[in-house]
Design goal:
By secondary structure, the protein is of the alpha/beta class. It has one domain (2-187): Aldolase class I (TIM Barrel), CATH 3.20.20. The chain has helices at 7-13, 28-40, 58-61, 76-83, 87-99, 121-131, 148-154, 168-179, and strands spanning 17-19, 45-49, 66-70, 104-110, 137-142, 185-187.
Length: 189
Amino acid sequence: MEIEKDRLLFDESGGGVTFSGGEPLSQDKFLKAMLIGCKERRLNSAVDTSGTGSLSSIDTLLLADLILFDIKGLNHHRSTKETGIDVGEIEAVLESLAKNQKRIWLRMPYIPGYGLANESIESIMEWLEVRKEWFERINILPFHRTASRKYELLGWDDAMKGQPDMSEKRVTIFAEQLRTVHKDIRIGG
């Protein structure tokens, strides 16, 4: 495997291979083959996913050592409208991973006007309270303008053009509120 060339780096850092995208589950067969290859070579593996494969992808995800799971919103109607994906399917994948005792780092994109930023903190905390044991850690991913130059260079429309970075104060308050439910809340990552 090509990634074996980086074994020294992985061994020294304690890291491994992270499969991200887009959505890695959109190439389920390839991802499964790569994760099997990592296991055979004793390389740590992580998959960064929003769980949009389907329950049939659980077998693939169970091969990873760590799941970085993005949850974009909790309101079924609004999230389906914003992402085009049924939140119920995503929650079923997440629940299945938890039942199989996978290591999960929950990632919460916090974007002005979208997803979790439109949810009440009470509903987020209620959702998390029921599931807090599922997550080893929770990373809040605040919106920032880093990609704006990439959009410009590629000639893509930037739906967030002119939107300032998420306020540090707002993100800190959000993190502090979530810490009342889960002990390991981090900003970034």
